[in-house]
Specification:
The radius of gyration is 33 Å and the shape is elongated. It has a three-stranded antiparallel β-sheet with strand order 1-2-5, with no helix packed on it. It has a three-stranded antiparallel β-sheet with strand order 4-3-6. It is of the alpha+beta class.
Length: 164
């Protein structure tokens, strides 16, 4: 038996201070590393997407009315391009008849879909165009822009030249 164990039988050996510090540093790194990665990811995401605009921000529904002659819905679409370069906007519109088939104010009925393309729109240009639905409606129609896509002019030329 060693001399220390005979003198103090219940006493443990003392852990050196550098071991305690090393364990504390490792535990801190294990706990804080995921937090730092998440914070870094969101910081980088914000920097990369700071000036990003969606095409739907440039397109608005100016009006939605019933055509007096055909009885079909007509939507006036307005594009105010804030894109960084020239390009084409493709806008998909959905029309609904709020009166419905039975003439009541219950469920609205589909009144067609339509697509309009604004080609080669300059930066800062403001354009409007009327788009007509294919199905006549009984009352004031409901018009909804369902999707907007933007294709910049260089990308449009490249895709056109790639097609055989």
């Amino acid at each position: 038996m060693t001399r220390s164990s005979t003198r103090f039988p219940g006493r443990r050996r003392r852990v050196p201070r550098w071991v305690v510090v090393l364990i504390a540093v490792i535990v801190s790194l294990v706990v804080l590393s995921p937090v730092a990665l998440v914070v870094g990811f969101f910081y980088a995401w914000g920097e990369v997407h700071a000036d990003m605009r969606f095409p739907s921000q440039d397109v608005t529904l100016a009006s939605c009315r019933r055509d007096a002659v055909t009885g079909g819905p007509v939507a006036r679409i307005r594009v105010a391009s804030q894109a960084k370069r020239r390009g084409s906007f493709t806008v998909h519109i959905r029309f609904r008849d709020p009166v419905g088939k039975d003439g009541g104010e219950g469920r609205s009925e589909p009144a067609g879909r339509s697509t309009v393309v604004f080609e080669d729109v300059a930066v800062g240009a403001v354009l409007t165009r009327d788009v007509a639905g294919s199905v006549p409606v009984r009352g004031g129609p409901r018009c909804t822009i369902t999707e907007v896509a933007f294709l910049s002019a260089p990308a449009a030329r490249a895709s056109a030249s790639a097609t055989p």
